[in-house]
Amino acid sequence: MTLTVNKAEMELEIGAKMNPGVWKQHSISVANNARLIAEKIKNMDSNSAYVMGLMHDIGRREGVKAILHIFDGYDYMMSINQPEIARICLTHSFPIKDVNTFFGKYDCTNDQIEFLDEFISNVTYDDYDLLIQLCDAISLPNGACIMEKRFIDVALRHGLPQFTLDKWRAFLNLKAYFDEKCDCDLYSLLPNVIENSFKSLI
Question: Which of 80, 110, 106 is nearest to 93 (CA)?
């Protein structure tokens, strides 16, 4: 059975109580933005997009972790029979299909990296994978912002690894793809873009 909106919201509340933090607000922001974009696209279900946005970082319920949060999310979603959302937990960090392009620490085992490498290499991303990747890149805890603002936000926290420009280009390509799908500049669909984009990160 597909995870309902109400159940997903309950799962996020439970997770946030287990590990309080701004990841909850970020997840809500991703979900709201994903739903607004999906509403404009034929053959996309806005409730499914919303649920996937809420759950993309659900692995953070297990504590403050880096890449390990995607495995915790995958394992938890699989344990409650949600393979599509489990997949989103893994794919949302990889607009480039390369396990060496994660912004942050690799606090996981070699076996987990091997599993992730095989999974990412073999999966065919659908529009839900791509949409959550996009929304993860434009969603601050208090709403949407231009993608370049989020790039700086992540760079200030994690530095500029060698793959940074390639990953930025991949995200920019995602925006162009969904602009075409929506037949508009998707920023026009989202709340607080101007306010958040011009607000200082410091």
Answer: 106
